[in-house]
Structures are given as C-alpha cells and as structure tokens.
C-alpha cells in the first residue's frame, strides 16, 4: 500500500498518474489523502482508496497510514505561518503516525543545499532540510528528493510574459543553476515508491538536464513563444515589501528572501549532474507543452507559486 499526500497538487497529480499506470503490474494498492475527493480525476477515484481530510490532522494520518508500506510526503507550506510551523510543525504529527504504524519507506519533497555553507541560512530551504531530519527520526527509510527551483514557477509570470514581454526574479541574470520540471520530480518519486529495496536515509537530487540562467530562460522563451521576452531583476528588498503587502507572514517572507539570496550565492550548485541526478525534460520541451498554452491561452490559473519547494498558496494582487 502506497499513500500519496497532496495528490491534486503540481507534483502529486503527476505522481498519481504514474502510479496508476504502474501499480497494476506491480501489484500495489494506492491510498490518497485529499481534502476534496471531487478534485481527483474520475478514473483515479475509481481505483484508489480515498481518505478525506488534511494531512495536517493526526486522526487523518492515522487512518491513512494504517497498513501502509510507503508514503509520499509533500508539505503545502502555509504562507501565513513561520517557516518552522509551515514545515516541521506541520510534519510532526506525520512522524508520530509513521512510527505508530511501522511505515517502512517515505519519499519526501525537499531541496538542494544540504552540507553546503549556505544551508543554515537559506530560509525555506533550511526549514525543509530540518523537516527531512525530523522525518528521519520516525524509523522509516527515507529519501528526500533534493530539488532546485521548478520550471513551473514561471507560470506565475505568464500574464506578465503575455502582456509586458518580461518576467521577474531576484537572481543575477547570468547565474546558471539547475532547474527541473515537476513531472520529473514525480517520476523520481514513483521509482522510489515502487522499488523499495533502499534502506536508511539520504537524498536524491533531481537536477533537470542542464543549468540555465535567467537570461538563458529569456532567450529560450523568446524562441519558443515567437515574441521577445526579457528578464527583469527585482531587489530582495522590493520582493520582501511586495510579499508582506500581500499579507504573508513576515517570517515566512523573510524565509523566501533568505532562500533567494542563498540561491543567488550558489546554494544549488553543490551537486554534480550525472546520469543518475539528471532528469529528462528540457526547458524547451516544457515551454512548448506547458508555458506556451499558459501565455497564449491564459491557462496559468490554478497553479501555485512553488519558490523551488513544495507549493505555496497562490499570491494574487
């Protein structure tokens, strides 16, 4: 039995689809935790066991983890909370339930940076790494998917790309860094959940096929979309003021700012890309399949800004 949290989110929906395609042959049963079962694809509702509720609730977790062999754990951070409360406090009831039910394997969504000098001052990344350490205390074998920023972050910029021909971030225009598609993260998670021969705790980097800078992204978008796209760099101070103005928790916003600063200082550059750490989806492919419809048809609604980690509630003006 594999339990999937956040099965309707950006990563979870890809993972659920992959597991539904794979589990009949593998002989695995699937169980999902979801607030609103109606958001699941109809075909999925017919083939999975549904536990209705939030995976922040201890009683929901105990129902979901009973008899489970493996769990996919993804925290949907609440930007009204502090980073600690959004990650570790949210996860603590799950650790209790994992231990109580003897769940053998857990795969979680986390971030790059462990072991680097920047890891202790990287805001939301630091909080995510602390969450990994907490899960490891459950006694389950644990693999943290160590991710860079997501291609999908750009979906929040679709309207700006469409209307103004630009997109905004805070990193140096020429800072090359790994980037990844959420579908590739889901593929890595599916592989670990289906082949549970691994033991102990560790991380699995998912780095995308190559490093790209903001200027590289702008050039690719210009070619793929057939219209000029330029990168506009925002200051960290302006980012902080903007997000606080949206009503987010100030400590959470500071966590975003600290993460952005650490990424600009090379936080994500510490892992070598190898055939084992690279993932296949190119930025060109992702633009054609996902960004172009969002820009030209306006289908970006419903996507949450991820800040390179698990999804954060959509910020709107």
Short description:
With 317 residues, the chain is an alpha/beta fold. The chain contains 11 helices and 12 strands.
What can you see in these coordinates?
With 317 residues, this protein is an alpha/beta fold. It has a domain at 2-151 and 180-205: Rossmann fold (3-Layer(aba) Sandwich), CATH 3.40.50. 42% of the residues lie in helices and 16% in strands. The protein has 11 helices and 12 strands. It has helices at residues 10-26, 42-45, 58-65, 83-101, 124-136, 158-164, 182-194, 214-225, 236-245, 250-264, 283-297; strands at 2-5, 30-34, 49-52, 70-73, 105-111, 141-147, 149-150, 166-169, 177-180, 201-205, 211-212, 230-233. A 7-stranded parallel sheet has the order 3-2-1-4-5-6-10, with helices on both faces. A 3-stranded mixed sheet has the order 7-9-11. β2, α2 (42-45) and β3 form a beta-alpha-beta unit. α4 packs parallel to α5 (124-136), α5 (124-136) crosses α10 (250-264) and α6 packs across α11. The N and C termini lie far apart (42 Å). Mean pLDDT is 92; it is low at 300-317.
Task: Looking at this protein, list some descriptive labels.
globular; 7-stranded parallel sheet; 3-stranded mixed sheet; alpha/beta; Rossmann fold; 16% strand; 317 residues; disordered C terminus
Proportion of strand residues = 15-25%
How would you spell out the order of helices and strands?
A: EHEHEHEHEHEEHEEHEEHEHHH
Morphology: globular
Cα-atom radius of gyration:
19 Å
**Average pLDDT number:** 92
Tell me the strand order in the biggest sheet: 3-2-1-4-5-6-10
Any idea what the CATH superfamily of the domain at 2-151 and 180-205 is called?
A: NAD(P)-binding Rossmann-like Domain
- What are the low-pLDDT stretches, counting only 5+ consecutive residues below 50? 300-317
The biggest beta sheet is recorded as: 7 strands, parallel
Number of strands: 12
Number of helical stretches of at least 4 residues = 11
- Termini separation: 42 Å
Query: Which percent range fits the helix content?
Result: 40-55%
């Amino acid at each position: 039995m594999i339990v999937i949290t956040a099965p309707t989110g950006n990563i979870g929906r890809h993972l659920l689809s992959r597991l539904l395609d794979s589990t009949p042959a593998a002989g695995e049963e699937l169980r999902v935790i979801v607030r609103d079962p109606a958001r699941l694809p109809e075909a999925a509702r017919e083939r999975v066991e549904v536990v209705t509720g939030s995976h922040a609730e201890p009683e929901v977790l105990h129902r979901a983890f009973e008899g489970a062999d493996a769990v996919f754990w993804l925290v949907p951070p609440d930007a009204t909370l502090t980073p600690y409360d959004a990650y570790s406090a949210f996860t603590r009831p799950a650790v209790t339930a994992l231990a109580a039910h003897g769940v053998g394997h857990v795969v979680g969504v986390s971030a790059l940076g462990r072991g680097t000098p920047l890891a202790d001052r990287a805001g939301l990344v630091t909080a995510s790494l602390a969450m990994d350490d907490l899960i490891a205390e459950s006694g389950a074998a644990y693999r943290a998917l160590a991710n860079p920023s997501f291609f999908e972050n750009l979906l929040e910029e679709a309207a700006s790309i469409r209307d103004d021909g630009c997109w905004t971030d805070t990193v140096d225009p020429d800072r090359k860094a790994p980037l990844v598609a959420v579908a590739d993260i889901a593929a890595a998670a599916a592989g670990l959940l289906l082949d549970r021969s691994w033991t102990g705790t560790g991380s699995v980097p998912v780095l995308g096929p190559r490093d790209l800078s903001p200027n590289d992204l702008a050039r690719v978008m210009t070619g793929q979309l057939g219209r000029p796209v330029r990168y506009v760099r925002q200051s960290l101070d302006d980012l902080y003021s903007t997000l606080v103005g949206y009503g987010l928790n100030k400590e959470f916003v500071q966590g975003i700012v600290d993460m952005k600063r650490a990424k600009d200082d090379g936080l994500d550059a510490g892992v070598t890309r190898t055939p084992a750490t690279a993932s296949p989806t190119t930025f060109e492919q992702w633009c054609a399949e996902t960004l172009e419809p969002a820009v030209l048809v306006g289908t970006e609604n419903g996507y949450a800004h991820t800040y390179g980690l698990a999804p954060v509630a959509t910020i709107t003006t």
